Amino acid sequence: MRDLHRRHPDAHVRTRHLDWDEARALPEGRIDALVVRTPLPIPGDGLDVTVLYDEPRALLVPAAHRLAGKESVTPGDFAEEPLVACAGMAALWTGFWRLDPRPDGSPAPLGPMLVDTFEDKLEVVADGRAIALVPADDRRATLRDDLATVPVEGVEPCRVVVATRLADANPLVAHFRESAKRFLVRED
């Protein structure tokens, strides 16, 4: 955003953080660009999507959990444990974040409740009622001392993408995409 402000100092540009159930703001025209983790929580039809980088997934567990402190885990290590599921719009991509179905084709055990927000997910895990898969680099999970993250081996990563509406004529949208590719792409 700083790059876009620098290149267009007179343009009205602002950042808006969306909850996971607000992703329809892009196709509905309430926002012009979206940086989001995939799979997309919205239908990809009518969108121009550019992959910025892959991000591994991690297992989120209470700090006292039997898997906390492990160097890494595989889906088999937590196959019988319930994973938090998302309510509402987030249900469209909750299977990806719950490994449902599991690599062997079996359904993932469902946690004791559905959550509406990421913060609610953190609380359910901290209380020991379920575990969760989260983006490995999501700092909201790593800043708490009552939670631990463990890298998960053998699962596909999520992707961080910039999405815009196809054929959007606003030049700021194209410039935002350029800035995102320049400053958000990670070199492995």
Keywords:
alpha+beta; 188 residues; 25% strand; 8 strands; 3-stranded antiparallel β-sheet
Structure description:
With 188 residues, the chain is α+β, with helices and mostly antiparallel strands. The protein has five helices and eight strands. The mean pLDDT is 87.
Quickly give the structural class: alpha+beta
Largest sheet: 3 strands, antiparallel
Number of domains: 2
What is Rg? Answer: 18 Å
The average pLDDT value, as a whole number, equals 87
Number of helix segments?
5
Large-scale geometry: elongated
Strand content: 25-35%
**Assigned CATH superfamily of the largest domain:** Periplasmic binding protein-like II
Q: Alpha-carbon distance between the termini?
A: 23 Å
Oligomer: single chain
Helix content: 10-25%
Order of helices and strands: HEEEEHEHEHEEH
Count the beta strands: 8
Determine and state the CATH class of the largest domain: Alpha Beta
Secondary-structure arrangement, i.e. CATH architecture of the largest domain:
3-Layer(aba) Sandwich
List low-confidence stretches. Answer: none
Strand order of the largest sheet: 1-8-2
Question: CATH topology of the largest domain, what is it called?
Answer: D-Maltodextrin-Binding Protein, domain 2
